[in-house]
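Standup notes
- HV: blocked on the assembly model, inputs below
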Amino acid sequence: MSERKGIGEGGKTLKQMMEENERLYRETGCYAGITEPYLLKEDPVKSELFHSRIMASLMAGRETTRMISASPFVREVAELCLGFYTADGASIAQSTGIQAHIMPMGECIQWMIKQNYEQDVGINEGDLFIANDPVIAGMHPADVYDMLPIFWEGELVGWVCTVIMEMDIGAVSPGCMPTANAERGSDGLRFCCEKWGANDLLRRDFELKIELSLDMADMFLLNRKGAIAANIRVREEVKNIIREFGLDYYKRATRELIEEERRNQLARVRQRTVPGRYRDVVPVELNMAKQPISWLPANQDTIRLIPIQTDILPSGRLVLDFEGTGEWGWHPFNGTPTGLRGCFSTVLTQTISYDGRSNLGTLLACEIKEPAVDSLLNPSEIKRLATADPWAAIFDLFGLWQSMLGIAYYLRGFREETFNWRSGAGWQMAGYDALGTKRPLLAAETGAFGPGATGVGDGCDCGGWIATQLVDMGNAEVWELFVPQLEMTRRFEPYSTGYGKFRSGVALASVMMLHRITQTVASGAIGTASDGIIPNLGQFGGYPGGKRNTLLVRYDNLQELIENRQPLLHELGHPAEWKDRIQGQVTNMGLIPPPIPVYDGDVLVTDTTSAGGLGDPIEREPRRIKADLDEGFATDWMARNIYCVDVIFNEMTEEWQIDEAATSKLREAKRKERLSRGVPVEQWWQKSRQRLMDRNLDGKILEMYQSSMRLSEAFTQEFKDFWALPDDFNL
Amino acid sequence: MPYSKEDLRDLYDGRLPWHKTFEIMSKPKDDDRFDKYVEILQERVPWLERILLPLGEHLYVVDKAGERIVKCDCGHEFGDWRQNWKLNALIFARDDTEKLEEIYPGLKCPDPNLCEVREFYCPGCGSLLKVEAVPVGYPIIFDALPDLDSFYREWLGRPLPDEKEFRDMTYQVTREWGRDIA
C-alpha cells in the first residue's frame, strides 16, 4: 500500500516536516538547519517589507476582533493576541497583547501534528480548531485559542491563531478563573484542539453546546466570530504576500526570521549583560484551608518555594533552573512547563526582544530546565487538576526573574533597563447582574500596578504589568455596565510604594461598591501568590512594596452618608489608621477570600502594592521627595521615617518645603543607627542556625522546606552547606 | 549609537531629561557603554584600585594586587568576589512586627512568622546595600556571581591576567563558622 501523500511541503506529512526540523536543529544548532542565512540579508528592504506586511496583518486582525467581539475584555482591554506560525507550529511573528500564549498556541499545533490529526481528524482549508486545555499547552482555560490552517495550492504553508480571554468558561462559581476549585471538572469547558467548524463557519452543534453550557454564551460566540474574522483576515493577507513575494521566498524567509531572531537574541544578551550565575527565590502561598471544596485533600494551607537560578553562558544563552521547587498540590495554582515557556516568552518579548521580531527564535536562544516531576511547576497529576490560576505562581516567578536580568543589565552599565514587576490579586463574583442575568462577574481594574524602579529613575506610576503591554483597562463606565459595581476611586496609593533612591511606580487601589446585585457571591481572583511573605523585589538597597490586601467594607451608616452627601471610601490613607475612618465592619479577607455572600452597598477593596525600589532610600534626592509630596505620591510619614527628610507644609504657598540642613542631620543619624543596630552576619547566622536546629519555625515554613527537600537532593545539600547543618540532620 | 560621558553621568544620576532617557532606552544599545560606565565610576571613587565590574550602587569588584575583591566606594573591603559579600556585611533582620512596621505599617506589614526582611549595611559607611525579603530560615541569597574571566576574554576581547576558577566559595565561610560552633 502506498504511503498517503502529506499536506506539507513537497508531499511530506506535517509530522515528517516537524521531525526533520527538530533533527536539523539538533544537528546544527540552527533553526531548520539554516547555518548560513542569506535571503533576508540579500535585500534588506524587501525582507523588512515582508516582515512588516506580516506584522501589519496581525495587528489589523487584532483590531478586527475588537470590532466584532462584545466582551469588554476584548473591546476595552484588548485581552487577546494573534500569532503566525510555520506549517509545523514554529512561531514566526506575533501581535501585541497577551503574548504569553504565543508559544503555547504553537505547541497546540505541534500536539495536533503529533496526534496524527492530518490523517485521523483531517486538516483542510477553512477548518476551525479550538483549544484551552493547559494539559496540552496554555495557561488556563479562560484563555481560548482559535487556530486556522493556511493553505496555498493544496499545501499547508502556515497557521494563524488568536487567543482571547473569556469572561465565562462555565467554571464552578464564582468567576472564570475560580480559586475555590481543585479538580479538572470545576474548570468549566475544556477544548482539546477540537475541530469545531469547517469552511470558515462555526458548526451549529458547537453553537448549541455553548448556548447550553455558558451563562455568557453570546459573549463567547461573538468572541469566536471575532477570532475567526481576524484569522481569516490574516490568512488572506498571507496569501497576498505569497502571491507578491513568491512561495519559495515565503518559505525560506519565514524560517530565516526565526533563525535570525535566535542569533539576535544571543547577540543582545552578549551586548547588554554580564555572564555568570544569578539567584533568587519566590515563595508561593497557597491558602486553601478555608475554601469550600468537596475534594478534602485540598483543604490545607501550604507554602512552596521556587528557587531560581539563571546562568548567563558565555555563548549568550540564558539557562533557567528551578531546582528545589516544592511539590504540587490540590489547588488551581500549579504551573506547567508549557506555562513557563509562555510566560518566559512574554517577559523576553517585553524587555529584551522588543523590536517586533520576537518569535520562536527568542526561546531557542534560551533553555528552561525541565522542573522536577511532581514539583509545583510540573505535576504528574496535571490531567486531574484544576488549572484556573497558574498565573499566581508564574507571574510572581517571572516578575522576580526580571530583577535577575535587571542585575545583569546594571552590571554592564545599561541601568536604564533594570526594573521588575509585581502582580496583584482582587475580587471576582458570580450572581445576577444589574439586568437580571446570572453569570460570572469578573471585572478588570485599571492598570493598577506599580512596576519597579529603574536604575536611572522612578518606576512608572500605575504603568506596567507582566501579562501585557496594555495596562489601560478601559473605561470604568463600560465595566460598570457589565458588572454591577460603582468604581469609587482613581487615586494613587502612596503606601503602595517600594522605597528607594529611585522608588517603584505607585499603584492604584481598587475600591468598588456593589450596586443593584442579587444573589451574588464574591471570592478571590489572584494573579499573585504573595501574602504574608512579601516578594524579594528590592534592588541594591531599595525595599520591595509591602503586603497586599483584599478587604471587605460594610458600612453601618451608608444611607446616612449618602443622604448627608458625606464622602465614601475613595482612598485608603495610612495603612495603620484608615479603618478608624469607617463606621462599620472592615474584614481583611486574606490572599484568597473564600466565597461569601455580598450585598448592595458592600465595598470590595483591592489594596495593590508595587514592586521594588532601587538604592538606599536616604540617598533619594530631596527634590524628588518634595515633588512626590506635592503630587500626593508620598506622605510626610514617609519623608521622615523612610527617606529621613525634614519637611514642613507651607500653608501659604500650599506646597511642601524641605529643610536641607535638618535633613543632612537626620540622614547622618540614620547611618549611625544602622552601624549601631546592625550586627556581623556571623552573629545573626549563629542565632538563626540554632533556631533551625531547634525547628523553631512556623509549621508552614517547616513543611515548605521539607517539601523542597523531598524533591531535591541538591537543594537539601546547599541548605545544609549554608547553615553548616550535620549530614544526618532533618528539618 | 555612542553617548557622551556627560549624558551617561546624568543618566545614572537620574538627571537626564526624560526625552533623552527615553531615547537611550528605545534606540539600539551602544557598544561602548561598559567602558564609559567604568570610567565614570572610577572617577568617582576615592581609591585607586581598578574597577573590574560594578556590583551595585556602592559595590565594585576591583583588582587589588592581583586579587579580585568586592569593595565599597567608602573603601570597606568584603573579600573575594566568589564569596557572597553579604556574609561580610552588617545585618539588621526585621523579624518581628515592631521592626517590620517601621517600614511597613499596619496593613502593609508582612507576617513575621513567615517572612524576614534582612537589611545589609556596609560596616564602613552605613549605606544600605541590599534589602532581602525571604521566608524565615532561607539561606542568604548570592544574588550575582559574575563570570569575570569569560566576560573579559570572550565578550570584551581583552582577557584579564591571572584567570581565576569560576566557582561559588561562599560555603567555605559558613563551614568555617560551623566549625567554630563545634
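- HV (later): unblocked. Chain A touches chain B through 103 residues (CB under 8 Å). The two ends of chain A are 64 Å apart (CA to CA).
- Next: hand off to the docking folks.
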